[in-house]
Here is the input.
Amino acid sequence: MADTRIEAVVFDLDGVITDTARFHYAAWKQLAGQLGITIDEAFNERLKGVSRMDSLEEILREGGQQDRFSLEEKEQLASEKNEQYCRLLTQLTPEDVLPGIPEFIASIKAAGIPVGLASVSRNAGTVLESLQLGPVFDYIADAALIRNSKPDPEIFLTACAGLGADPRYSIGVEDAPAGIQAINASGMFAVGVGKQLPGADYLVQSTDQLCWEEIRDCFFQTLLP
Ligand code: BG6
Ligand code: MG
Here is the structure.
């Protein structure tokens, strides 16, 4: 079966390409603790794919502190979290690319299909640099220019537009419920990595199970009348 009708594959970064999700969680947990708010891993699932300021708002709401801080104070809190996150990021090396990802991307590129990145993280450039993966992506959507974080489809649509791809013939890869919702809303085919991702058109438990031929065939099955 030819690959010619698949026009792009667009990846999330945190939790798909590398496990920075644990650093985001650690940094938020520390900040929340300082505010007297307890968050656990189940709550953290809600923050995946959600922008920095929206994540802070969620945490403050969780602690019943949504009206406690001014906008300036909230910006200060978000930047404290980011400083801690960036400190943790210094540990990241090319060895931290998740298993199977280099091979999966290589198969896609060997099929002549362009590869994009749709992360709402403003640290995406730093993360890709630490992983030495920047040049692999044909287009990286700029999170600083995105108005709406996931579950809004904006970042995936921006990545498709940047690659000149029709979202209906493109595939998105995500680890977070908000990310799968964003892919669904964009009209793309959703590949989920992880558990409890309703809405994924194709689901694997971990990145080392990502197999391009299987995903390609599953995508074409969905196009059949
Ligand atoms: C997403 C993460 O990729 O980026 C979220 O899943 C994070 O957890 C968001 O809040 C924004 O990241 P940053 O690096 O701009 O604070
Ligand atoms: Mg993610």
